[in-house]
Amino acid sequence: YFGRFYGRIAEKPGDQDPSTLQAIKENAKGLAGISGERIWVELKKILLGNHVNHLVRLMYELDIAQYIGLPLDGSLEEFDRVTKNIQNLCPKPMTVLTSLLKVKDDVTNLDLRLKISKEEKNLGLFLVKHRQELTKAVGPEPLRPYQDFIMDSREANTNSKICELLKYQGEEHLLREMQQWTVPSFPVSGHDLRKMGVSSGKEIGTALQQLRDEWKKSGYHMDKEELLSCLKKL
Predict the structure, then answer these.
(1) Using CA atoms, how far apart are residues 117 and 121, in angstroms rounded to an integer?
(2) Going by C-beta distance under 8 Å and a sequence separation of 6 or more, which residues neighbour residue 94?
(3) Among 21, 135, 156, 193, who pairs with 198 as Cys (CB 3.0-4.6 Å)?
């Protein structure tokens, strides 16, 4: 049924017969009986297709949204803004969809209905949490807040989530820079500190953390010698 809706509407957006639309609206409840996985397969196609704005607005007009896990009061304005920004940036379907969602619970409810993957759910939660406050810096290093976030994160795929956030924000130029950026390795080890006469494990831990902070302040540019000479001053 959802596939039929998609087939009929997607061919020629804006060119639908009112009686077809009315029939879809009257049968919207029927979607409640269709498995979430099947709906998610079709919805992902729509999210990455050419007529995504038109089709999602129709889902709300025809009362379909509530039966396929979308929030009743989806942010259609934010959705319009993000879909314009993101057009040529190859987003993941979840990145596009998250612009309709306002709060964490919207992601949870979507997952309950559509059984999205764990990775998709985590991406949705990440975007809802960080889309407002994790933004580019003013000044010569606009990418720095994103780089710091990745460096401070202990998770494996933070880099990929940050790239999706940049797409969501429409930051095409920064996205390219981020895709070319290699996460730098911290150049100092506990072994280096032992050689300099720092012996207790606790002291080594403290010193490494202080040097890591200095390294971060330098934009990850300081090398081992500069950091170790810094240690003498600390």
Answers:
(1) 6
(2) 116, 120, 123, 124, 127, 164
(3) 193
Residues ≥6 apart with Cβ < 8 Å to 125: 104, 107
What's the rounded Cα separation, in Å, for the pair 15 and 26?
19
Instruction: Say which residues have a Cβ less than 8 Å from residue 110's Cβ, sequence separation at least 6.
Output: 69, 70, 97, 101, 116, 124
Give Cα 227 distance to the centre of its chain: 34
pTM: 0.89
Distances (CA, A) of 52 to 76, 83, 102, 159: 12, 8, 19, 27
In tens, the pLDDT along 173-216 reads: 999 999 999 999 999 999 999 998 888 889 999 999 999 999 99
Q: What is the pLDDT of residue 50?
A: 80
What are 153-176's pLDDT values in tens digits? Answer: 988 799 999 999 999 999 999 999
All residues at 6 or more sequence positions from 174 whose CB lies less than 8 Å from its CB, including other chains: 136, 142, 143, 146, 166
Statement: residue 233 has pLDDT above 70 = no
CA distances from 130 to 6, 70, 113 (A): 32, 20, 24
Collapsing DSSP states into helix, strand and coil, what is residue 171? coil
